[in-house]
Amino acid sequence: MEVLSTSNHAKINYCHWKSNNHLDSALQGDDDLDVLVIPSDLPKLKSILLQNEFIEMYTPMSRYQPGIYHFYKFDTESSKIIHFHLFVDLITGNGLVKNFHLPFRDMLLKETCLYKNLIVIPSLETEFIVFIFRLLSKQGNLFDFQKFLKEKKQIVDEFKTFIKHINCKKVLVLLQSHNANEFLVPFYHQAVQYLKAKSWIKLFVLGIKFKQTANWYRYSYFVAVYIEMKGIFRYLYCKLRKEKAVHFGSPTPIVALIGGPASGKTTLTKNIKKILCPYLGVHYFHVGKPEASWMFCWLRLFLPLMRKMLPHHTSTCIEKTQQLGTLVKVSYLHIFRKLILAYERKKLITKIFQKSISGSLCLCDRYPLNSKFLTDGSTFSDHDIAFERSNFKRMLMRMEKRIYQTFPKPNLIFFLKVSPKVALLRNSIRLQSYKDEAYLLFRHKLLCEIEKSYDGDSSFYTIDTEAMDETHCSNFIISSILRNI
What we know:
This protein is of the alpha/beta class and 485 residues long. The protein folds into 2 domains: 2-238, no CATH class; 251-483, CATH 3.40.50.300. The chain is 49% helix and 15% strand. The chain has 21 helices and 15 strands. The chain has helices at 2-9, 23-27, 42-51, 105-110, 124-137, 142-150, 152-165, 168-176, 184-197, 200-214, 221-241, 265-276, 303-309, 315-323, 332-357, 382-387, 391-405, 420-429, 437-447, 450-453, 470-483, and strands spanning 14-16, 33-37, 55-58, 68-75, 80-87, 90-92, 100-102, 112-115, 119-122, 247-248, 254-259, 282-286, 361-365, 412-417, 460-464. The strands form 4 sheets. It has a 6-stranded mixed β-sheet. A hairpin with a 3-residue loop joins strand 8 (112-115) and strand 9 (119-122). Helix 5 crosses helix 8 and helix 12 packs across helix 21 (470-483). The protein starts with a helix and ends with a helix.
């Protein structure tokens, strides 16, 4: 990893301070890298990470956890997110409040070695001391104890690995060197005894006693309770909405994937969300088919019946005729349906931009660009409006067009193109055969012109989904998004 090599050459005083028995999987991107760095070298390490295209991210608890930093980068080779979790002090505690400070930083950074000629790790003895007291610091309430019981197998395996390889005499010497903390040795012996016997209740009680004795708290009791309650409510909110709490510190670009039928818009958008969602706050929106607003949701109940009763008045039938260049008189039913759709899209796009301002990444499946090349824009052209004789209809049609003209342009547009032959093949595989193949060919011919209209626009990317497979397309889009943040 280039970041680690550069850090080693720059002689930055750091080490990977915990869970080193799982370090190989962390280096492959399956877990985060917990790096402890001396405060004076933190600016250097941050600079190296930023130079290697890492992006600093934030959690809702970041403001209450000074000294903890998150840096992310997407690795195109493995299609994984690399997460650098930086610490300037040994700050630990439960998952909601990192309220406990262990004074072992200098001890960890004093005796280190280079693991696989790649990353600096501490000696087993110092890491074991931190493992024991970090375990005790996480005991505090039943919520933490329940979480501990879920992870007990992993903890026992790690404990057995330490016991097998460490020098117990050296551990005691290191603990006794903390003259101001004479209480550490008795707590250490008891914790080791309870772990060997798998006495979880006794370990839980010991943890509470240790925290009361050490009193290495960062916040007072009432401040810690306030932060914890805030974290619990935020956790439940994200769980209910199926959102990831990690976010960018500044407004993020609105990303839109557009293209013709069967070009891979929905498939790629969902795949990108699947890759990023375990790490970042990502939201998926199908702008082509927005959710019904409470004012008009009852109308959708009648749509299937109206399609059967009035097949020639369906949106698809009318739009095909309009796109092929024939001017037709449209019904009030069609105009009202398009006006409602424009309103629902406007409401959704407003929500998307609000999410973007809060630092969440928004992925849009389709986007109304108000272009004649796309079906998701305004339905009625100036010629359609002039052709209509009814003044009231013309007013409604102009109203629909004005709504689309207020839509802001997305920050990044990925135009997905594919040949008509492959589009027909993909639709046949998905059991979605086009009855009017001439219309499909016509749509693809129009879409070829969209590249010319955005020629020279740095926010516009063209992707041939026929030439590139799904993985390469997803990797290219994710890399482009992160470069523009």
